[in-house]
Amino acid sequence: MAKNLDEGVSDMADGREELRRVFSTFDKNGDWLISKQEMRESFDKLRLCVSEEELASTIRTVDVNGDGHVDFDEFVSLYESISGKREGEEDDAEAEHEDADLAEAFGVFDENGDGLITVEELQAVLKSLGLTEGRTIGECKKMIEKVDKDGDGMVNYLEFNEMMSAGFGRN
To answer: Residue 27, Cα to own-chain centre: how many angstroms?
Structure first.
């Protein structure tokens, strides 16, 4: 019983730490507040199409204290409303671990951290792994074209996720 309680507390702390990391990617200036501009830049980087009205509405809905910014507690509430989870609820640990692994794998390819895998980044990683695939830019372009749903010549996180899910039977 105590072991299960300890694991639950540890999982909750890990989840909160993960949310802090995500929050800090939105909080560009490190003031522990996400402004409308910071949220816009983050959504754009993630290639999420959100109108100014939707963005303003999201902030108004989440901004409980009315200061025009999203603080960490408000961010946690937003996460919980999107995910349908409340802090401390048991998660599917395996799926959560897979999601973290997927994000980490994406980060390996996304060398400059802009949220996109370019042909050059793909080629550099394949070369560093000593793989024969992707020796030329043309080969890497073909690889990217196979998963590039929006036609921008790069792979964003959602496209990467779909590719990995199809390749490994995940959803």
So the answer is: 14
Bridge pairing between strands 116-117 and 155-156: antiparallel
Q: Is pTM beyond 0.70 here?
A: no
Contacts of 88 (CB under 8 A, 6+ apart): 8, 12
Residue 81, SS3 per DSSP? helix
In the chain, % of residues over pLDDT 70: 75
**Residue type (1 letter), 23:** F
- Indicate the residue type of 49: C
Banded model confidence at residue 170, pLDDT cuts 50, 70, 90: very low
Residue 85 is predicted with a pLDDT of: 52
Q: Residue 7 and residue 93: Cα distance in Å, rounded? A: 11
- Tokens 């802009």 belong to which residue? 114
Distance CA 64, CA 57 (A): 12
Q: Could you report the per-residue pLDDT of 50-81, keeping only the tens digit for each?
A: 789 888 888 888 889 999 999 999 888 877 76
Cβ(116)–Cβ(156) below 8 Å: yes
First to last CA, the chain: 32
What would the 3-class secondary structure string for 122-141 be?
A: HHHHHHHCCCCCCCCHHHHH
Q: Bridge-partner residues for 34, per DSSP? A: 70
